[in-house]
DNA sequence: TGCCTGCCATAGGAAAAACCTATGGAATTG
DNA sequence: CAATTCCATAGGTTTTTCCTATGGCAGGCA
């Protein structure tokens, strides 16, 4: 048995046929037929049911598929692990972050990281929580920054603390001169809220419900950036994470604290539990923790 | 990267050199040089330090070695897993047992198992606990029967219950007519005890110490069989597991129960936690549990 | 029904990979 | 200092993999 046979088999199962798999692998279809036949011969039984319109795995094939995938993932992991012991630190680090975290937090992390580890090629993936999770599980991401999340055991969750949410107002809004906004002040405002695709959108929705703030919600934005622009133009108000403060000010908004109970959202860092954690990933985590402390999201920097 | 390269690399590390590994693998030494060089090239750094007298792995090599072994083990496991879904049940089942369990218990398990699963090729390994453990971890054994044992997390321990120990006497011994032997009866006897290599030997030693039975130990046997023969010839007495009763009787001994607190030893079945458990292994486990219940070692047959 | 299309298997030759024998250099040992 | 041990390299051979071409089978469509 050889690894290329496993790669071929996995592709055939996933593509549902030899021809499509051949295209994906950039090899001729007979090569696949040959290698799969060899594999089946070695294992002593067919792995695929050849149907007129493609193939589906047999029972044995399904079992083998799962294991083949794991083995290939481990091979990739071994490669990364070995590559990681080169000096100085180099390689690629793929960081995921949700859209309501990325613009506020990542700039604070990426620049210092690049400075400290110039050899590491950074890549950022901004996406919604569930999709980040899936990509982390697949091994595409080294780590991910999300808010509250429910994960499977293969994913390691680690809190970075809690980030306050503030009230986003146009600079010339009557409330904008206050030091602090009270919940009751918000009841009459026109709300611009984030789509509930975003966990922040869902959280704000729940918060307002709990606080009995019945906003006139008349605009659901897909991006916080859109909301900031709208607020800047006096079209309404909103809630935004504290890390968006500078961004909001620059666009002509104000981000003001809310009176107790101050709303907060949890910030979590996700790592894959089984895959090798590169030194770059660990360095990034350390930096993130440090940053969380500096921002007052948590008190100590120990785990 | 291909699996044969991993196999070669593992062999070179374990043999400490290309030449020895080549002999083990039945290939010419330059083939190894070539394939390892390729592997190192693909991983971007040397895995082995070439010394005048052989090779030792670099840091990267050590990391890679661990993972390569795991990958190869998973490949073997995948093969077994796939083979296991053939009907009827077939394949090989390798069972380990310590010498103080094997002769008494295995006959009760092997015959019915072979009858129920004629397609399964049974193999038995009789060895001391530690060595069975190691072989189980290596994947050489499917399961093992031992007494008390401390294991690492990769090994799954499951109690089959507790087997009583009896007193082994010559048939013509004055005590042999009793229904039950008392601890005090033993104090003046000449003891034949098992080498402390065996866990039963250690246990008997501790038991006697605890019960304050100071036997005149003058013979340390390496096998329980030897002890039975010696006892049969009136050379001394001993303690033996209850499952040796029939064997002892056949050789002209008697095995009698001891008064409370009746000494017992734990009987455990070991399985590897991570490796695939063949249906044959599970069937054997079921049979062992059933047998343990029939022998009165435990009350229920549920896990 | 009959043709067309998509899909996989087979055959045979070409390309690539792995392997082997022979040899050389480096360091150690007697 | 010669002999030995061990790994790397070179060059040719064998084996494996891969590709192109082709054939058979079944479903879809006129």
Explained architecture:
The structure is a homodimer of 303-residue chains. With 303 residues, chain A is α/β, with parallel strands linked by helices. Chain A folds into 2 domains: 3-83, Winged helix-like DNA-binding domain superfamily/Winged helix DNA-binding domain (Arc Repressor Mutant, subunit A, Orthogonal Bundle), CATH 1.10.10.10; 91-303, D-Maltodextrin-Binding Protein, domain 2 (3-Layer(aba) Sandwich). Helix content of chain A is 43%, strand content 23%. Chain A has 10 helices and 11 strands. Chain A has helices spanning 3-15, 18-25, 29-43, 59-83, 102-116, 129-138, 199-210, 224-232, 245-250, 279-294, and strands spanning 48-51, 54-57, 91-97, 120-126, 143-146, 155-170, 190-194, 216-221, 238-241, 253-257, 264-272. In chain A, the strands form 3 sheets. In chain A, strands 3, 4, 5, 6, 9, 10 and 11 form a 7-stranded mixed sheet that branches. A two-stranded antiparallel sheet of chain A has the order 1-2. A two-stranded parallel sheet of chain A has the order 7-8. In chain A, a hairpin with a 2-residue loop joins β1 (48-51) and β2. In chain A, α1 crosses α3 (29-43) and α1 (3-15) packs across α4. The longest helix of chain A has 25 residues, at 59-83. The model of chain A has no long low-confidence stretch (mean pLDDT 88). Chain A binds chain B through residues 1-4, 43-45, 47, 59-60, 63-64, 67-68, 70-71, 74-75, 77-79, 81-83, 85-86, and chain B through 1-4, 43-45, 47, 59-60, 63-64, 67-68, 70-71, 74-75, 77-79, 81-83, 85-86. Chain A binds a DNA duplex (30 and 30 nucleotides) through α3.
